[in-house]
User: Fold these one by one.
Assistant:
Number 1:
Amino acid sequence: MSQPIARTKVNLHPVASPTRQSPQAQQLVAKAGFNLHPKAARNPTDRRWTIGSSTTAPDPRSNPIRAPSTSTYTLPMPASSNLSNDVATTPKKLPKSKRGQHPLGINTGFNSHPLPMQEANESIYIHIQGNAAALRWNSVSVETQKQYGTPFRRYTELITAMGTNLTMTEIPMAFYRTNPTMTFHETVIVGYMTYLRSNRNCSPNTIMSYVSGLLFYLKNMNVDTSFVADSRAIAEAKKGIFQLWRAQPENNAADSARVPFSADMIIRTIAKCLTSGSRKDLALGAAMKFGLTFLARASEYLKSNETTRHHHITGKDVAFEVSLPSGTTKFVSASKVKHYPFSAVRKLVVTPRDSKNDPDGNGHRFPYVPKPRSQFPNDLYCIVQSMYECACSLQPGDDDPFFSCPIENWHLTADDMSETLKKGARLYGFNEQRFAPHSLRIAGASAMAANGAPNWLIQLAGRWRTDQFLKYIRLSTEAFQQSITAISSCTVFNSDDIRMWNAGVDLIHAEKF
């Protein structure tokens, strides 16, 4: 097991005098191969001390040189060693390891031991720096860390070809011989995007996602990434990638967007593609209705095998209010509702306690009441009855995923749901690749909009923090016809309205009329 790594900072600016550095700092710098002052260099061609100097021209005889970056250079050290030990330098290539591992091999576990307060020595700084690195790394979920692993692997492939290291502090002389118009850092980022597009055939959206993952890794290596947001060259490169991709006839974002999967499609899929006697097929049918009714993200009701932090609802998150013979009511969990007939169920309450945009785990509570078919003839299903039948058949425990069956030892996954939705899409002759669990969320938002629900209600029901949900809504035929009628009407919006809203503006030359 690799030792945890802490960090110390040594001032390497060329104006720094060696006498101002502590003996320990000078020893560290000497071991790392740096010089604190140009006059102190044993080799006159060694200009690696120029970290932080933007005015010193590179010596053409030096290969490689250090990148002008900040006035300090972070030196990683084993936390268990003292300052006299050798300094671990930044590797050129990430060693083979599990996905989601820190690129520098730093121990990302938080040190919960008290800070050593007895005296001001290196121990307290090592403790703080180690925990700072752990907190920064764990600022995103474990699942996201693993997802960011692929962008970082692509980055290591590129920097190996470019002849630099992970933190871009070694600049090959070949870079300067090309008379660059961008800084070296900008060149690496733009090169990363073009590598993903040309060599890896990634779409623009995938490239932007990879860039976000790369920036996360760079920040964890103490690289100042503020230049990415400030760089005009990088911003124009992003726009250019989108423009060139869109100019190709086969690249239409609308052709790859997810398509809604509506309630009538769910009912037909259950009838044609699922088996009535199968517990798993019963769960699939109920899960489709749940995803549509609750505008649920897949992670909110389907357990993922790729993460240690789960958002899915469990047996205790689904409760039923039932009537008792005494005339009172009480709430029972999904694992106990089988002891009561459906006629006794008065309400279903679902509480998703965790989601990707709810890091504090405050949860959301949604109550539903049974809908008698006689009063709601147009409703294709009753979500309360579907969840009741699912709970009675699957009998999940309080801590089990709700859409799981401990008796048969399985739980529904996103792949199970995608396969079922694709089967349903084929019934209609649709392109099955356009359908995924997210299709249910889109359909739910579209149905609410078609029914005249205000945007704030759709946003609340779907647990969106922003107006991002607006891009998911698809207009129904009825809503579109109402819009067309309003457009062509002479009373809804006419010249009188234009004249009123432009009062006081020299809109027309009255003398001509």
Note: Residues 499 and 506 are 10 Å apart (CA to CA).
Number 2:
Amino acid sequence: MNLNTSSSKNHFLINDGEKNPTKIIKVLDQFNNFSTINQLEGHTEDINCLILYKKNYLASGSSDKTVKFLDISTYTCIKTLEGHECSVKCLTELKNGNLASGSSDDKIKIWDENFKCIFTLTEHTFWITCLLTLHNGWLVSGSQDSIIKVWNSDDSFACIHTLQEHTYVVTDVIQVTNYDVVSIGSDAQGTIIVWGFNQGFKNIKKWESGSNGYTLRSLSNDMLASTHTDGNIRLWNMLNYEFVTILKGHTGWVYELIQLNDESFASSSDEIILWEKTNDSKIYSEKQRIKAERCFNLLAI
């Protein structure tokens, strides 16, 4: 999920492996040295994904095969969705307010606003690793089968495009400002591909980023960030997709990255690092480190 947040957001939501193996969501106060002010429990196994849903709710997917919804004003669970046969790996809110969930049961489920499963999509042959809602409402899915599929979000949810340029797991897919769709793979070269949205999802650029890829996020000033298993973050110019710089600081797999405001972003691994712009608008430097252990998810609310 490509999540941009404003500087008015003062709480971080994280789930990390300190004491409990990623089953607990911690609420951190950004303006009080990121101290823990709440801990949210309920899932019985690892939490794999967190998103904001309808602005007022937190949706979490877990290896316990469920999706839980929490009211962020009270941090109370209002609904638990059951139906997947294996871990829930990814979530996205659709343009019409429905929710899509992807699982290691190789299926995508569509849930309506009454939390009823109305579609189950079964065309992938391996785990669903990432989901994206396009600006026109279509759904995009990436999988361990190395394939990306584009689904029409009308009453049929028919697969309208199948993209097969990756050779290994597709770990993330985002839509950037000019509507192009960008994907990254976990192959050793970290292959990144740009798909032309207005060109029938034609492969318009493909390159090797240098290390197994994990997430993609768009930043301000037309910058694209990719995270990698080598502990580094690579920045790319979204106007021409040329390499800009590499940010070194993490020592392990970089799991997540979110923009905080026009001047800074946060990344998570075995700890959270806050980065801010230098005088050069395209270069970032480390500002602060926050203790965390195996921080898989990072969200600002």
Note: The longest strand covers residues 284-291.
Number 3:
Amino acid sequence: MTLTRLEGTFPATSPGSTCVILNGTMTNTGATGTFGNYNGLGAALTHDAPVTVINIQGMITQIATGANFTSDNISNMTGYRCTIAHSGAGTITNINGFSCSMTTTGGAIGTYIGLNVAGSSSTSVTTKAGMLIGGFTGGSNNYGIWMASNTTDVGSGIAFGLTPDTYLWRGAINQLLTPGDWMLRHVLCSSVPTVSAGAGAGSSPTISITGTDHGFTVTLTTGTTATINATLFTVTFGATWTSSAPSIAWNAGNTVTAALYGSAGKVPFTSATSTSTTTFTSGTVALSDSTTYIFRFVAMR
């Protein structure tokens, strides 16, 4: 049996029934037995009786095509659609196309899922997406997905796997964490560093830099009277590293630079690194004048 009510309040008193409420309330406080479904649209559903209910559903809809649908077409099939238009001069504090919240002080709950999108194995669908989000522009702050929590654990992150075993979450400002290892094909960087020569490179040297903050090459042609224990050059990162300075490693980019390893005291070194710069310094023996050296660097943290 199905009970349908367009407004008002009524008790569900028939075991095994389906109660459908449109713009009303339904309260069960005394019926016994097993109820099939409570379905509501614009409704307040309250179950306060010691009986079993198969489903309590705030809104349910089913859309299907039949065998006679052969030659025509349907542009869109939408189970739930919300369109909001605001053209008045008044202020709206919040607009929620879909809002779900949970508060519980009762017995145990197995799983709480705010939005559950079932997967699909159909091969007749060209493109599938569990969630499609359009671009947001024009606001002071625009986000496709906003994880609105300042907690620093997986509770504010993303879990992967049918039985979750891989996680990604916010560790701090501008920082993502995972409890395991990162496996990446390549690390790409768009921040471009700059370089300036110091006294250790001699008088009127020429210097250039290519690459990104993660990996860059410095080509230095020394001037005259290169000096010892002095700055050869300083690299300024295109973007400041967050939290702490990166680790810097380098190797030779030509045979002249590689030969420095066999010259006692002539090997330069990274003397200082901050979140914004790294400084390369000459050793106890000066570099040769008017000579081109190539240094290749990797910066990681």
Note: Residues 60 and 242 are 47 Å apart (CA to CA).
Number 4:
Amino acid sequence: MGICGIVTTPSGKPVESATLDAMISAMSMGRNWHSKSVCEHPISFAAAAPTCTVSVWRSPRVVVVCDVDLVNMPELRNFLGSESSDGSPAEAVGRIYLREGMKLLGRLRGSFSIAIWDVSDETLLLAVDPFRIKTLCFAVSPEGIVFGPSPSAIFRSGYVEKRVDPQAIASYINFHVVLAPQCAFLSITKIMAGHYVSWKKGLVQTKQYWDLQYTEEAKDSENSLAEQLYSRMAEAVEKNSTDVSMQELGCFLSGGTDSSSVAGLLARTGKHPVQTFSIGFGEDKFNELEYAHIAQKHFGTQHRDSILSAEAALDIIPQIVAAFDEPFGNASAIPTYHCCQVAKSSGVNVMLAGDGGDELFGGNSRYATDKIFQLYQVIPGFMRRGFLEPLVNHFPLGLEIVNKARRYIRRANIGYVERGAEYAPLRNFAANKVLAPGMPYRDGHEDLLAIPRAYHRNAPARSELNRQLYVDIKITLSDNDLPKVVRTSEFAGVNVRFPYLDLPLAEFSGRLPANMKLRGFEKRYLFKRAVGKLLPEEILKKKKHGFGLPIGVWIQSHPKLRSWAEQILYDPRTYQRGYFQREFIERLFKLMDENASSPFYGDVMWIFLMLELWHRHHVEN
């Protein structure tokens, strides 16, 4: 799960062991997880996880606590040579820090959250891995600094008052997650991917130590680049599987190109049995077991799948609410958690996931769609503004071709970030009709898209496509998909690794020209050529889906879920929070019923359901 701790100021009181125990309990959710701790005033550190990824090390000069899942520990031990004694990751981190300072972060290959207390400098250093697979947040008070993987551990310290941040709640309603560095609670800050924080005598500094650079410098032939990509993918899967027995190792298998290629590359290592796990649904539109079975047969994996019903999902929802300290509206957390449960019941302790492939190699449909809008900007401005747009606006509304032309021009004249957010609740609906009086962003005075706009503007990339990929790595991946998979797997007692986020592979993607990711309107151009001989043709040609969930359909048409949703959203206390308006929810139910063929309004309703359930569990306790 992660690490937690307290460092007090010189005037602060020593931390009692009961306080640290309470923080450990919050991290492990009361379960019997592996844990380590150290208390030496002014520091109190602890770590807890469902698998053996936590360690503590102390010397006269530093104290280290970490939750790391590194694939290059043998190399780090060789680098240290005879210096290494107990061989723990915390010792390796501490000894490399004593040699190189925070340059040590560049040597770590895998996921990590680390706390280092530099005794002589009286400085606390907190760091997370380049993609924030493992998370850390912190709060500073007059008594010192408190940190943990999530707000619950920080609150259990007793140093920080629990107060909801309305700005973060409005951001959640729009993005269905709270974007870093924001937190749903005031006074708490998340450490962003590829960053570390230093704290010394009450002063905090944040520094970025890694970012994905889009140099697009690769000039080799297409065949050579495809071979290099395949080789790096194979190495990443090998590195992430070599230290786990095949009886304890499994793969998510949705039947898409990412999960199928991970399973296929694992099978190519020659180690058996390769175990794969899938979740299906009774609704054909959402059920992809057909493709998972194609991959399973092609690679000869030992496969298990499970059909998730609406009733089973309803039983899982309270566990999902409990697992996330902040409101989290990605409904696919439910099948992900269920898949991890199935894997755990089969003796699996480590799962390999294919997350990151879309964002690194151009796999999302929106990249191709957005290119259609970019084509409009190729037309000289004087022709667009002086001829085409006046011409289209001259025709009366009502003609479908005119309506389509106007919609196209309108969307083409706004940026990628704005186009991507058009169907978000506070963009698709008027914010002053959704948000309750007094909520931020309600009157349009603040920029709701400030964070994604900044990512797009400051992306270390020349091409528009790579700017888009950069935005999605920061938000879709680090703020959404990774927390979904990591948190639900932890809750099921499973550790997850992400081979495609192996740094040498990720950095290689940055060196690829944009047209090797999106060629014309063909997504994953080079990726598909790299795995062309690995994957079945049916999977190479299938449309992207993933571990989606028909939650909108179920809320709309399943009696139990419909009744459950109404009971929560029509409860008067739901509107005592001051987050959103009852009139909007009533309108949402009406729109859902009027558009029976679309799950859109039910999907939007899910965002508000999870917000209220989060408040009841994590704010009201």
Note: The chain has a mean pLDDT of 93.
